[in-house]
Inverse folding.
């Protein structure tokens, strides 16, 4: 509040019977004054008013002013929240010497917010008629008198004036500008005599005035841009957090090698799709159709998104964070508010709210976040009816299995606890060992993030080429896509990170031949990245880095210069320590253990650490994260670690031997390895325990360093059965440069394994699927034959047909249809086949799905639920009947029946009312589940009441009675929860009813 802007207001004809009236005002500009309308109530529009600015000593006399807004008188009995007016001071200048601009704010949320104002009340009137000032100090209570539309001010600090004969002691303070922090939030209008021992005032909110006709325009005529900031502490913190989070999320996460800075993520991001793989259907491979990933993450339940290295997981979460923050900042909001954290942040034994607080504070410190985000921000809903959507990135990067288990257990406990309606989680990870995700339970959906399709790469390339200003980007993108399609990199280029790197490398050197594999792509990219980071103003950059060391003498400067010259070796050393040894020390401490980065004796540790930190940041390969430096992407760390290890061929050979030297002996319990009984008791080689992505980088680096053992280890592994061949197939899909002879022999071995009738059926299907993954043309016919092979069971048939479907083989639909309608097939295979057929958008799936939904003999209730969801996907008119049957099925859990009934209600089916009413009144269910049933029921019954003219009177009375009962139930259930979900779930009380 600027005291120089406070003014007295005198309205000679403002009172009744022509008497004058005194008030207070505030200068929004040199000639524009904000005050209360009732001070001018009896002054005609355009009538004369006088104002005098607060000065000590008083230098300026009364200035003539005219009422300029509102355009016509206000009925304050009907609209007390419109009690405000604007005056314009006559003359060209008004009150001079004002500094800065007025900031405006709005009160949101449920906080009490400290406030202050300065007025001229009657209590400070002197005998000569002059008035002195009296402050209004207290707080705005956002929950007090919410229906009035006004702000309620509790004066709880300083002097409260005595009531005067015939009126309030605050008379004369009407029009006082009310400030919360730096923001003007309201105009004092009334004294509310509702408490004996406290002073309670009413103020008109600036947020209400901003929406009134002419108010904003009048301010604009005086050069004032009305922008409402958050004045509530929690809302202000939320805004600051979201602003910084948005700023961080819109940046491209990885440094580029092109001139200038990397383009914004949105400029080159191509939205991907996901396929849901149900946990209970995993055994028979049933998957949903591909769905836009952003649609799935709009308001998801807790779920897991899985993709391989560079598959787009981080970009997906960053995009969701950026779009969610933007919507809340512009006021459009949504049902969930995202917060992005690394999985490592949830490993510590800290309360969730504190873990989130520390993670976002550390991550956003370099993106404009000035204050610590307090844990309390995450302790309650960000807005009524809104949940936190915690985006957990990089679960696979938590290398300690126990720590990874802690993360998953924590998420599961939140989902089962009192905060289950406050938080949802989206966990992004690479594929993990079987059973890793089991702590989440079977009801948490798993989604496979799909790679780019054949038509996507030209669009990706066009975005990159356009962003960097390449001539004719569209034509260049088409030519580039054709070149990739005729190379060994066609499959690799479908991986989003690889596509981005390939596009940048091509834009830098369009005439250069394509790289031979993933390792070479990373070699070229890191070389260009190093060159790019040092190409612009390199001498000035070195001078800045050395400035903190030079003062310690020539020896210190020379050591620092040598450190900078060895920066690629230092980042390789750091990567190897993190990847090979699991070293969790700070990056600077790890780097200092390298001979080229040891601290000179005369340089203090803090100064040397600061120099190393700046040098590592300048490499373009690392970024600040949670108070440390981490590599931009896990694959970059893997590549640099592999190259560093293989720089010494002897060390590299030892590492490669240790990775592949995992032997065991076949036995009857190992039949799932895909081997024949005749070889039981013989030795075989297990697949490496390390992540296949890192193993692939090791093999590529070994080849470049002259370590020749890689192909021998791989050939030995291929002879170990399906698992070994699967591992080689995965390496090929990652883009590892494997010898052609190895790929051919592995494909031949997979072909023989798939045809070997002594193996289990699932091993044969697995072998055929891997054969298809390496691009062998024989795989499709082999899978088709396996899908009808009488030696295989129904699940194997379904898996083979489904594998064909995922590869867009047109024969898959007929195979799936035959399985789905064959009543002799096992129920889980029939359901899986029908669901897969439905997500191929084949209408033949509808009949078997409807039959399965109504089949009480199915092994699992979830099979019927999944069948109903697929029927909804097909938009079959019988889907509503299927949902209605399931919603009333007592064999299903209450939560499952609730989900089905809500889906029926969303379709506008009035039959949902009965199951929803029963669920809402079911005392055996959790209170939140009962509220979740009651809320859509209110909407459904309200819609039914709109048809009242066509309803018979008994039916109308029954509906009305049920509406009353549901409102009463919601209000009663709301009082049973300490966090008052009546407020937090967005429930609006029925007009005329008490809350």
């Amino acid at each position: 509040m600027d005291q120089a802007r406070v003014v007295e207001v005198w309205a000679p004809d403002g009172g009744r019977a022509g008497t004058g009236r005194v008030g207070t005002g505030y200068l929004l500009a040199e000639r524009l004054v904000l005050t209360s309308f009732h001070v001018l109530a009896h002054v005609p529009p355009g009538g004369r008013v006088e104002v005098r600015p607060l000065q000590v000593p008083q230098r300026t006399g009364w200035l003539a002013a005219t009422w300029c807004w509102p355009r016509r008188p206000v009925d304050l009995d009907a609209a007390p929240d419109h009690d405000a007016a604007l005056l314009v001071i006559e003359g060209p200048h008004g009150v001079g010497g004002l500094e800065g601009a007025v900031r405006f704010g709005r009160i949101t949320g449920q906080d009490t917010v400290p406030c202050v104002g300065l007025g001229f009340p009657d209590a400070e009137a002197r005998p000569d008629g002059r008035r002195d000032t009296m402050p209004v100090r207290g707080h705005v209570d956002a929950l007090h008198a919410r229906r009035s539309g006004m702000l309620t001010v509790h004066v709880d600090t300083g002097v409260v004036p005595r009531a005067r004969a015939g009126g309030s002691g605050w008379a004369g303070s009407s029009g006082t500008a009310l400030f919360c922090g730096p923001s003007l939030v309201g105009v004092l209008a009334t004294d509310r005599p509702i408490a004996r021992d406290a002073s309670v005032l009413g103020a008109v909110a600036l947020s209400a005035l901003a929406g009134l006709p002419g108010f904003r325009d009048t301010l604009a005529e005086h050069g004032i841009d009305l922008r409402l900031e958050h004045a509530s502490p929690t809302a202000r913190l939320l805004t600051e957090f979201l602003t910084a989070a948005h700023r961080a999320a819109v940046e491209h996460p990885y440094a580029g090698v092109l001139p200038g800075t990397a383009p914004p993520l949105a400029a080159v991001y191509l939205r991907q799709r996901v396929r849901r793989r149900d946990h209970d259907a995993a055994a028979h491979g049933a998957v949903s159709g591909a769905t836009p990933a952003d649609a799935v993450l709009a308001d998801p339940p807790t779920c897991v998104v899985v993709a391989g290295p560079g598959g787009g997981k981080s970009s997906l979460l960053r995009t969701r964070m950026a779009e969610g923050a933007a919507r809340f900042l512009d006021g459009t909001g949504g049902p969930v508010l995202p917060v992005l954290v690394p999985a490592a942040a949830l490993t510590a034994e800290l309360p969730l709210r504190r873990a989130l607080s520390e993670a976002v504070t550390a991550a956003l410190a370099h993106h404009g976040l000035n204050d610590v985000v307090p844990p309390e921000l995450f302790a309650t809903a960000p807005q009524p009816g809104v949940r936190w959507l915690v985006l957990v990135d990089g679960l696979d990067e938590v290398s300690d299995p126990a720590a990874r288990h802690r993360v998953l257990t924590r998420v599961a406990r939140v989902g089962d606890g009192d905060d289950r309606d406050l938080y949802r989680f989206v966990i992004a990870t690479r594929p993990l060992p079987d059973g890793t995700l089991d702590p989440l339970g079977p009801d948490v959906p798993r989604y496979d993030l799909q790679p780019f399709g054949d038509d996507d790469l030209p669009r990706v390339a066009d975005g990159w080429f356009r962003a960097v200003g390449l001539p004719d980007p569209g034509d260049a993108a088409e030519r580039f896509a054709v070149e990739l399609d005729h190379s060994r990199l066609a499959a690799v280029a479908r991986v989003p990170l690889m596509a981005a790197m390939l596009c940048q490398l091509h834009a830098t050197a369009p005439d250069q031949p394509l790289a031979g594999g993933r390792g070479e792509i990373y070699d070229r990219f890191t070389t260009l990245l190093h060159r790019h980071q040092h190409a612009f103003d390199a001498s000035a950059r070195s001078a800045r880095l050395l400035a903190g060391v030079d003062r310690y003498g020539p020896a210190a400067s020379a050591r620092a210069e040598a450190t900078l010259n060895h920066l690629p070796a230092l980042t390789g050393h750091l990567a190897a320590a993190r990847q090979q040894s699991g070293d969790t020390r700070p990056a600077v401490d790890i780097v200092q253990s390298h001979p080229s980065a040891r601290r000179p004796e005369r340089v203090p540790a803090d100064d040397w650490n600061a120099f190393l930190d700046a040098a590592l940041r300048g490499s373009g390969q690392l970024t600040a994260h949670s108070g440390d430096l981490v590599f931009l992407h896990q694959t970059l760390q893997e590549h640099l670690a592999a190259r560093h290890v293989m720089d010494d061929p002897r060390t590299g050979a030892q590492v490669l031997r240790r990775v592949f030297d995992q032997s065991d002996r076949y036995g009857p319990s190992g039949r799932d390895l895909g081997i024949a009984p005749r070889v039981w008791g013989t030795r075989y080689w297990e697949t490496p325990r390390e992540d296949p992505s890192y193993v692939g980088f090791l093999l590529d680096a070994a080849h470049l360093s002259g370590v020749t053992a890689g192909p021998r280890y791989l050939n030995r592994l291929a002879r170990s059965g399906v698992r070994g061949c699967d591992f080689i197939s995965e390496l090929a899909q990652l883009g590892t440069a494997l010898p052609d002879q190895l790929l051919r022999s592995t494909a031949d071995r997979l072909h023989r394994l798939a045809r070997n009738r002594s193996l289990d059926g699932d091993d044969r299907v697995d072998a055929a699927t891997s054969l298809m993954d390496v691009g062998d043309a024989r795989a499709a016919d082999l899978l088709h034959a396996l899908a009808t092979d009488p030696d295989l069971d129904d699940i194997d048939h379904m898996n083979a047909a489904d594998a064909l479907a995922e590869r867009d083989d047109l024969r898959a639909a007929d195979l799936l249809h035959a399985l789905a309608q064959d009543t002799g097939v096992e129920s889980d295979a029939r359901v899986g086949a029908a669901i897969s057929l439905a997500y191929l958008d084949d209408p033949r799936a509808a009949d078997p799905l409807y039959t399965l939904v109504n089949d009480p003999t199915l092994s699992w209730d979830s099979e019927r639920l999944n069948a109903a969801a697929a029927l909804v996907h097909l938009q079959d008119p019988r889907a509503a009947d299927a949902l209605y049957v399931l919603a009333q099925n007592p064999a299903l859990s209450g939560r499952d029946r609730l989900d089905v009934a809500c889906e029926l209600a969303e379709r506008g089916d009035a039959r949902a009312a009965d199951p929803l009413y029963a669920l809402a009144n079911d005392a055996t269910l959790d209170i939140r589940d009962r509220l979740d049933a009651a809320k859509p029921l209110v909407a459904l019954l309200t819609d039914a009441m709109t048809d009242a003219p066509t309803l018979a009177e008994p039916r109308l009375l029954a509906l009305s009675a049920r509406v009353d009962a549901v409102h009463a139930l919601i209000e009663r259930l709301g009082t049973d929860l300490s966090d008052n979900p009546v407020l937090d779930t967005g429930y609006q009380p029925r007009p005329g009813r008490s809350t």
